[in-house]
Design goal:
Length: 111
């Protein structure tokens, strides 16, 4: 799905014009980009998390010359899918959280 298709789909489901929907979607994208520039995480609960991950400097190989090259440290944008998105794509139910193994609270005795 391309961005224009996304805008048309959201506009159809919300009953809002495509022009207004495009403004909202562009504002969301700009907000996520601005937050990532400041190295802040953006979490959309259930959908996923956008974050900046740092990469270490390393040595690589130029595939055409087989010469060793230095690859400097850097930053990259990353996305981790949330549980709702993962389960929707896989068709499986999300794993249930285990109950804590704490002791039950004592019951007060009546006098």
């Amino acid at each position: 799905m391309q961005k224009t298709e996304l805008i048309a789909h959201v506009a159809k489901h919300t009953g809002v014009s495509q022009v207004e929907t495009a403004k909202v979607i562009n504002a969301v994208i700009d907000t996520v980009v601005d937050a990532l520039k400041r190295e802040e995480k953006v979490t959309l609960t259930g959908f996923g998390t956008f974050e900046v991950r740092k990469t270490a400097a390393r040595t690589g190989t130029n595939p055409s010359t087989r010469q060793k090259i230095h690859i400097p440290a850097g930053k990259r944008a990353a996305f981790s899918a949330g549980t709702v998105l993962k389960s929707a794509v896989s068709g499986k139910e999300p794993a249930k959280k285990k109950a804590s193994a704490s002791k039950p609270k004592p019951v007060a005795k009546k006098k």
